[in-house]
Every structure is written in C-alpha cells, then in structure tokens.
Amino acid sequence: MKIYIDGKYYGREDARVSVFNHGLLYGDGVFEGIRIYNGKVFRLKEHIERLYQSAKAILLEIPVKKEEMKNAVLETVKINAKENGYIRLIVTRGEGSLGIDPAQCNAATIIIIVADIQLYPEEHYKNGIEIITASSRRIPPDSLDPRIKSLNYLNNIMAKLEARQAGCLEAVMLNREGFVSECTGDNIFILKNNELLTPAPYHGALDGITMRTVMEIAESLGIRTRETTLTRYDLYNADECFMTGTGAEIIPVIKADSRIIGDGMPGTITRSLTDRFKQYVLQRAF
Ligand code: PMP
Q: pLDDT tens for residues 124-155?
C-alpha cells in the first residue's frame, strides 16, 4: 500500500501526520470516498467538485488546483495497482497550534489512501438490512450544512452506536424538525406508488453521488424520482426502501423500528436498480 501525503508516497507504517494536525485535534477538514471499478475511478469529477465545495464552505484553501488533485488521485490508484477498491481523499486544515484557530495552520494536508472496502456483510445485500431511528439528530444546516462532507462525524457515530446497541447495523437519522434526513453514512430512498422518494439536502442529507446516480438510472427506467419531505410513517409504509452510498452501493432495507417494510424482502424495483447500477458503474467509470 502506497499512501499519498502532500505529494509524496509512504508505506502504511510510515504514513503519518503530526499530532498537531487540526484534522486530528478538531476534525477540521473535508473528505471524499470514491470507488474504483475495473481500474477506473467512478465519478471522479463530481467527487472533486464536492470536495472543493465542502472546502470553500469551511474557508479551507486547498493548495492545488482541481486538475492537479484529479491527477494525484489517478496516480495513487495507478501506483497501488488497484482494479477494484475504494479511495479516501482527505484534506485537513493542516498542522497548527493547540488552539482552535485555523489561522495558526500554515497549509492544508492532502492525504490519498487507496484500499478495499466492505461496509456490510454480503448477506444483507441479498436479504436486506434492519434499521432503527436514532435519537441523535442530524446537525441542522444553519449549524453545519449537511452538504459539507467534513471530518466531523460524531453525531453520525453516535447514531451508529445506537444502531449497534439495538442489535442493528444501521440507523436512520431525523433532522431537528423530526423529518427523515439520511442514515449514518448513506442516503435513504423509499419507493411508494411507483415513485422513488428521498429527503432533500435541506432536510439534512448529504448530496450523495450514489443517490444522484440511482435517480438517473431510475429515470432512465421510467421511474419517477423526487426529493421530498419524509417522516418515519413514510418509511414504515413504504413499498420498498433502500440506502445508497459510495461504500455501501445499494442496500435494501427490510425493517425499520420493528415495522416490516413491504413484504419483508428486498423489493423488485430495488433489485432491478441494483442490477442496473452494477452495469452502469462498469460502463460509466471515468
Ligand atoms: N450520507 C453520509 C452522511 C455519507 O457519509 C455518505 C457517504 N458515505 C453518503 C450519505 C452517501 O454519499 P455518496 O453516495 O456520495 O457516497
């Protein structure tokens, strides 16, 4: 494994950053999770765009241009000779003092890790997953916009712990108003009356790249899609439900808070979207 840090490559054991790095001290930074399918990087342009938009929103200056960043990602993938895998691209505020003030940090730190990922056991892709509603709410957009993919995941981690305590692997999070936002690391969709519905970013969801891809595929299959307001009632009474994310891809949800969704099996549309998604990522990789 060769890990990129600020233009140099290091082995796994030697890839280190300072304990004064504000990414560690304060979670001050942004990141992207990206897939490699058949040696090609999926939706790299979109991920780079989102990274720079997240950085802009937190006034974090990335010291390289987008094109250079793209090339660094492609080169790291090449050096690691990974045909299928996952890329973690991180930009932190960099090394500073022990105070919170970003002005004490001289330059951002850029890290690129190319690795494997398996977020959920294979059986859940086949049989679906059970989720609970977490009591930890999504941070409201006026405090931290959910479209910023920041290194601050503590409220999602709290929700993940709740899921674990309830014997589940995943939790859905509500926003401050009590509407469904997203899961701890994935967007959530329901199918109701042949329409595919997902909470909008202003409800507290990350503007997911997999979410957008799935909506595009659904539209091409003649399924109407809509970003809308959902409550837990909508989840419980959905015909089908699934989550989407770069790491998780598409994973069917068959139970929410002990309510069986649909007939308790991954739905027909979920299955066909999954099949099409698998073909799509192979054809459309960058
Ligand atoms: N929501 C959150 C909180 C996430 O961390 C992620 C990414 N793991 C997603 C949604 C899915 O986004 P994407 O499809 O762009 O990976």
A: 999 999 999 999 999 999 999 999 999 999 99
Convert 225-262 into a string of H (helix), E (strand) and C (coil).
EEEECCCHHHHHCCCEEEEEECCCEEEEEEEECCEECC
d(CA 128, CA 142): 34
φ, ψ for residue 239, nearest 5 deg: -75, -40
Please give the structure tokens belonging to residue 110: 């850029």
Which residues, other chains included, contact 13 with Cβ-Cβ below 8 Å and sequence gap of 6+? none
Per the DSSP assignment, residues forming a β-bridge with 8 are 5
The Cα-based distances of 204 to 48, 162, 183, 188, 250 in angstroms read 21, 19, 10, 12, 20
| Length in residues, the chain | 286
pLDDT tens, residue by residue, 72-125: 999 999 999 999 999 999 999 999 999 999 999 999 999 999 999 888 899 999
Domains parsed from the chain with CATH numbers:
2-115 (3.30.470.10), 122-283 (3.20.10.10)
Residue 69 belongs to what H/E stretch? helix 66-80
User: Which protein residue's CA is at the shortest distance from atom 2 of ligand 1?
Assistant: 185
Decide: 206 in ligand 1 pocket, CB within 6 A: yes
Which residue out of 56, 149, 255, 278 is catalytically annotated?
A: 149
> With a threshold of 0.70, does the pTM exceed it?
yes
- Which ligand 1 atom lies nearest to the CA of residue 156? 3
- Would residue 149 show up in a list of annotated catalytic residues for this protein? yes
